[in-house]
Amino acid sequence: MLKRLAVNCGILFAVAVAACGIHVVVNSFVEQPVVVKEIIYSYTVNALLACIVVLLLFVLKRKLKDQLGFVFMLASMLKFVFFFILFYPRYHADGDLSRVEFLIFFIPYVICLITESIILSKFLNTLDNYK
After folding, report:
1. Is Membrane one of the keywords UniProt gives this record (predicted)?
2. pTM of the complete model
3. Which terminus of the chain has fewer Cβ atoms in its 10 Å neighbourhood, N or C?
């Protein structure tokens, strides 16, 4: 199980790193470039939170087998709470959440969520094989 968990978290981080690189390159062509460290921070936080959700579902697979979907939805909601704690105050400090600031959070969130969903759907489809 640890090997599978490590591989899945590795996949998640690899996708996040690739997407972050593309995001930084695309951002360099935008009229209002933002600080690269903000993009990297956003991808890091989102990938870390997604990996924690994957870990949580792997750990709870036996205890809460029938409620894993609800655990996933609750964890996704908590990721938005992290947005309001970690990102929103910084982005809304000037009284305006610009489109670029929103996309710095939302693009990594969506990419990590999609990757996390693919990993977990494969995991949940094979859940009956676990004893």
Report:
1. yes
2. 0.83
3. C
Domain range list for the chain:
2-129
Alpha helices (H) along the chain: 2-28, 36-59, 68-82, 88-91, 99-125
Smallest Cα–Cα separation from 45: which of 113, 108, 117? 108
C-alpha to C-alpha distance for 4 and 127, rounded to whole angstroms: 13
Q: Which residue has the tokens 């090997």?
A: 3
CB 97 within 8 A of CB 86: no
Q: What are phi and psi of 87, to 5 degrees?
A: -110, -45
Write out residues in the chain with pLDDT < 50, as ranges. Answer: 131
- The amino acid sitting at 96 is D
Question: What pLDDT sits at residue 33?
Answer: 63
pLDDT of residue 10: 94
CB 130 within 8 Å of CB 61: yes
